[in-house]
Amino acid sequence: MQGYELVQKIKKDREAHPNNIFIKWWRKEEDYIDFDLVTRFLDNLKDSTEIAGFELIDQDEMWRTIEKRCDGRAVKVQRDGRWVLLWNPPKGAEVEERLPEYPYSPETLLKILDVESNYNYVD
Questions:
Q1: 110 and 65 in one domain?
Q2: Contact at 8 Å (CB) between 85 and 67?
Q3: Alpha-carbon distance 55 to 25, whole Å?
Q4: Which one, of 86, 90, 83, 88, lies nearest residue 105 by Cα?
Q5: pTM for this model (two decimals)
Q6: One domain, residues 16 and 34
């Protein structure tokens, strides 16, 4: 799947499920899985980009992926009426900045998954 066909399938899925803001996609080689925000993925998509398949997921599904990957090092808690993440990065991980808590946001979830998987997520 590539180019126009890919864009059309993604847009159709987004219309049916507008809360699915993440894309989980894989190449024909199925050597790794990548995650991104759907909007950013579409903005960076080239006509020649070829993928084998994709799934659009919502923030709750992405959080479950993080929980599974972090194996207890990430916890979602409510503070002052908002959700935050308490995350203890793996030893030796390169993290932009270590914080006592992180916002529960799509961007944070992607950053955590990137660090946890060393930018090479394998299911």
A1: yes
A2: no
A3: 6
A4: 83
A5: 0.88
A6: yes
Final residue of a domain: which of 21, 40, 57? 57
List pLDDT tens digits, range 51-108. 999 999 999 999 999 999 998 999 999 999 999 999 999 888 888 888 999 999 999 9
Beta-bridge partners for 79: 82
How far apart, in whole angstroms, are the C-alpha atoms of residue 19 and residue 28? 27
Residue whose tokens read 């060393």? 118
89 token code pair: 């990065």
Which of 57, 81, 100 lies at the terminal end of a domain, its last residue? Answer: 57
Beta strands in the chain (DSSP E): 22-26, 33-37, 53-57, 74-79, 82-87, 102-103
90: containing domain: 61-116
Measured from the Cβ of residue 16, the count of other Cβ atoms closer than 10 Å reads 9
